[in-house]
Specification:
Order of helices and strands: EEEHEEHEHEEEHEEHE
Shape: globular
Distance between the termini: 39 Å
Number of helices: 5
Strand content: 35-45%
CATH superfamily of the largest domain: Janus/Ocnus
CATH topology of the largest domain: Pyruvoyl-Dependent Histidine Decarboxylase, Chain B
Largest sheet: 6 strands, mixed
Number of strands: 12
Amino acid sequence: MPLVDVPDANIDPDGVFKYILIKVTEKASKEEKLIVRGYARCAYHGDVLDETEKELGPDYELLCLGGGRIKHESKNHTILVYGYSQGYGPANHQKSVDILKKKYPDYKITFSNEGWILSASNILHSMSLENIPDVDIDPEGLFKYIMIKVTSKSTGNEKWIVRGYKHCKWHKNIFEQTEKEIGSSFSLKCVGGGRINHEPQKKSLLVYGYSQRYGPAKHEQAVNLLQKKYPEYKITYSYDGY
């Protein structure tokens, strides 16, 4: 597929979903262009990038320039572009709007750099310690994970949680994302990390390895937390490997 035939915009026809702005470079000619992609079926911005890489194939080099969310109301002919990606940072929403206007010339298309941050903060800052999920990991695959001690600043109560995501390259990225999600009412301390191999077809989880930055987590403690969320799974751990 020549670069000129790569669609500038490909987003879901309705709903609220994550999107990313991508610079696409044709390897042979070195020509490049910006494209917008966004799908409700993708839980993470990284999933949108993965899908686009498969869509375009090996003849192109893709660089994600940031992300956010799109609210597409086809009945009202409106699109709102807003927020940011925790993995890639905020996209240049003005550039995204310019691209979307070419595909939807009869739409009212606007953007905001504030919306998602404010709404998320309002929700999360009022969250009680009990409402913070003990476990939040990707539904399948091999990825890094960390164990975090969360302390309520107002009560001093604390709990341990497990977080793990494929779209986070480093254990530190998981920690930073969790800090943003949980908000300023809590104090977070990473008490170690490792990796998780999640195989939902086999109903199995393997917890192993360590974090070069934070050291190894207490995998047996992580297993206990995971077992509560996945009671029908076989969950094992090992301190071998990285």
